[in-house]
Design goal:
Layout lengths: L2 H56 L11 H4 L3 H5 L20 H36 L1 H14 L8 H8 L3 H25 L3 H9 L4 H39 L4 H10 L3 H29 L14
Length: 311
C-alpha cells in the first residue's frame, strides 16, 4: 500500500465524516424550524403555570407544606431520587440501601412504567383492531360478541384490579393486563364506529370494480379508518398512563405509581409533585412522538385533517 492510497483513503473518511455531520446539522435545523415554535409555546405555557405557582407561594397563599413550589421539589433532585430505589425494598431480607444509584433508580422506574404502558397499549390496539374488523366482517360473530363488548366497556379499570392480581399475581403482568383491559373494549367500539362511518361511495365504487369483501376491507376500509384510529390511539395513551399508576400502586413491586403511593403514605408532597412532573414529561414526549409517527404514516393528508393539527 502506497502513501498516496493511504492519503486518498483518509481523505474519503474525512469527507464522509464531514458529510454526516452536515446532514445531522441540517436535519436538526429542519426539526427546530418545523417544531420549534410549538415547543416554544409549550415551554411558555408551562413556565406561566410554574410562575403562578411560585407567586402564590411567595405571597403566602399556597401552604409550602402542602403545595411546595417547583423550585423546592425540583431543586432537590438528588434527595427526591433517593426515594426511587424501590425495586428491592419490598423483597424480604434485602437491605433497603442496596441497589442502583439514585439517578439510575429514577431511570429504571421510568423505564418500567413506560414499558408497561407501551406493552398494554400495543396489545390493546392490535387486538381491538382485529376484534372490530371481525365483528363487522362476520355478521354472526358480531351478533354474538358485540353485546358482551358493549356490556363490559363501561366497567371501571379499578374493578378489574382484583382479577388482574388473581390471574397474574405480583409483577408486570397485572399492570399490563390493567392497561389492556381498560383500553380494549372502548378501542373496539371506536374501531366499529370508524368502520361504520366510512364513506359508502368508496365501498360502492370498489364493488363496481369487482373487489371482493376481503379486498374492500384491506384496501378501502382499513386505509379509510387509519387516521381516526391513530387519533384514538393518541388519546388512549393518556388513559394508559392513568391506569398503570393505579395498578403499580397495588399490584407491582416498583414503578411511578408505587412512588406516588409511598409519598402519600409518608406525607411527602414534594415527592408527589416531583413524580407528577416526570409522568407529565413522559406523556408529553410520547404524545409528541405519536404525532410525528402520525405525520409519517398519514403522509397523504394535509395539515389540519386526520387529527394532524397545524403545529
Amino acid at each position: 500500500m502506497t502513501a498516496t492510497s493511504v492519503k486518498i483513503g483518509g481523505d474519503r473518511k474525512a469527507a464522509d465524516s464531514s458529510g454526516l455531520v452536515s446532514l445531522l446539522f441540517s436535519q436538526t435545523i429542519e426539526f427546530i424550524r418545523r417544531h420549534g415554535p410549538k415547543l416554544g409555546w409549550g415551554l411558555l405555557s408551562v413556565g406561566l403555570f410554574a410562575g403562578l405557582w411560585e407567586l402564590l407561594w411567595y405571597l403566602g397563599i399556597a401552604d409550602h407544606r402542602l403545595l411546595p413550589p417547583p423550585h423546592i421539589f425540583l431543586g432537590d433532585f438528588a434527595g427526591q431520587a433517593k426515594n426511587f430505589n424501590t425495586a428491592k425494598r419490598w423483597e424480604i431480607g434485602v437491605d433497603p440501601s442496596s441497589g442502583p444509584t439514585p439517578f439510575m433508580a429514577v431511570i429504571i422506574t421510568m423505564a418500567s412504567s413506560t414499558m408497561r404502558v407501551l406493552a398494554g397499549l400495543a396489545i390493546a390496539a392490535i387486538t381491538s383492531l382485529c376484534m372490530g374488523v371481525l365483528i363487522r366482517f362476520y355478521g354472526l360473530f358480531g351478533k354474538l360478541v358485540l353485546p358482551t363488548v358493549t356490556l363490559l366497556a363501561p366497567v371501571s379499570p379499578v374493578a378489574w384490579l382484583p382479577v388482574a392480581i388473581f390471574l397474574f399475581g405480583i409483577g408486570n403482568g397485572p399492570a399490563i393486563f390493567m392497561v389492556f383491559i381498560a383500553l380494549f373494549f372502548t378501542m373496539t367500539l371506536a374501531t366499529i364506529t370508524q368502520i361504520d362511518s366510512v364513506n359508502r361511495n368508496y365501498i360502492n365504487v370498489a364493488r363496481t370494480m369487482g373487489a371482493s369483501k376481503r379486498q374492500i376491507y384491506t384496501r378501502v376500509i382499513l386505509p379509510a379508518i387509519l387516521p381516526g384510529l391513530l387519533v384514538v390511539l393518541r388519546l388512549n395513551l393518556f388513559g394508559a398512563w392513568m391506569v398503570v399508576l393505579v395498578a403499580e400502586a397495588t399490584g407491582v413491586g416498583y414503578g411511578l405509581g408505587q412512588i406516588i403511593s409511598m409519598a402519600r403514605n409518608t406525607f411527602n408532597p414534594g415527592l408527589v409533585y416531583f413524580t407528577i412532573v416526570i409522568i407529565g414529561l413522559l406523556g408529553f414526549t410520547f404524545d409528541f412522538g405519536l404525532r410525528l409517527l402520525q405525520r409519517r404514516v398519514l403522509f397523504w393528508l394535509p395539515k389540519g385533517q386526520g387529527g394532524l393539527g397545524s403545529g
